[in-house]
Amino acid sequence: MTDANLPRPDDAPGAPPAKTPTAAAGKPGRMIGLVAGAAVLGAVTGALALYGMNGLKGNASATKPLPDGTVPAATAAISDPDCAGAVATAKRLAPFAKGELAALSLATEPRRLPPLTFTDGAGKPVTLADFKGKTLLVNLWATWCVPCRKEMPALDTLEKEQGSADFQVLAINLDTKDPKKPRAFLDEIGVSSLAFHADPETKTFQALRSVGRGFGLPTTLLVDAKGCEIGYLAGPAEWASEDAQTLIRQAVGKGV
């Protein structure tokens, strides 16, 4: 699939419709202004193409206290002493967070992910706890997010080569409209190893946003077998690269 066939950022749910400027004859000043405006719009569109940030619910901060003075559960549970092992794993992985994964931010404090809820391929509700015992690469994506679409084949390859009883790529689709669209896209590009999971209400994004881990798409987290965060990456990565393969093997404890 070529870039020309990919959705533009303004295809994202909730994005304003694009306006086509019309030139007024005899008004060069206005024409210059329109050209300058188009240049700025192009720059903004390019930025959105790198990291999709439109069309998601919950972009407002969710870390403020509720009206009754309590802190949202997801925020309150962000620090967990039982996740100290994940921090130790993160330190061990530091030498491998390079090259294609240089942007991976490794945990420096014990953090447990909030109780993410989504559905499996059959529409059955599942939670992150259902995958306890496995190291996970949790990836939030949508078909309107160009970098998400581009990295799906790499995530599929990573699952094909590293997926086991100890590791799984958990890709969660956040399309809010046509439920058939993400499945059709995955079929079209030949994704065969990734299990389909979806969250059309974007609750996973909102939960991660509430603990500072969801500001756009794609969002990817490396999670240990206890549901604790090992690392976090905002934006795309080449997950089929040798850098990624090596880091995952190290995270699972299989060595280089």
The overall average pLDDT, rounded, is 79
> What would you say the CATH architecture of the domain at 80-252 is?
3-Layer(aba) Sandwich
**Widest sheet, order of strands:** 1-8-7-4-5-6
Rg over C-alpha atoms, rounded to the nearest angstrom: 20 Å
Largest sheet features:
6 strands, mixed
What is the CA–CA distance across the termini? Answer: 33 Å
Number of helices: 7
Q: What series of H and E elements makes up the topology?
A: HHHEEEEHEHEHEEH
Number of strands: 8
Helix/strand-derived category reads alpha/beta
Q: Give the CATH superfamily of the domain at 80-252.
A: Glutaredoxin
* Named CATH topology of the domain at 80-252: Glutaredoxin
* CATH class designation of the domain at 80-252: Alpha Beta
Helix content: 25-40%
The share of residues in extended strands comes to 5-15%
Short synopsis of the structure:
This protein is 32% helix and 14% strand.
Q: Would you mind describing this structure in some detail?
A:
The protein has 256 residues and is α/β, with parallel strands linked by helices. It has a domain at 80-252: Glutaredoxin, CATH 3.40.30. It contains 7 helices and 8 strands. The strands form 2 sheets. A 6-stranded mixed beta sheet has the order 1-8-7-4-5-6. Strands 2-3 form a two-stranded antiparallel ribbon. A hairpin with a 5-residue loop joins strand 7 (219-223) and strand 8 (229-234). The radius of gyration is 20 Å and the shape is globular. It starts with 27 loop residues before the first helix and ends with a helix. The model is unreliable at 1-50, 57-66 and 68-77 (pLDDT under 50). GO terms for molecular function: disulfide oxidoreductase activity; isomerase activity. Residues 1-26 are annotated as: Disordered. Its main location: other. It is found in: Cell envelope. Residues 107-253 form the Thioredoxin domain.
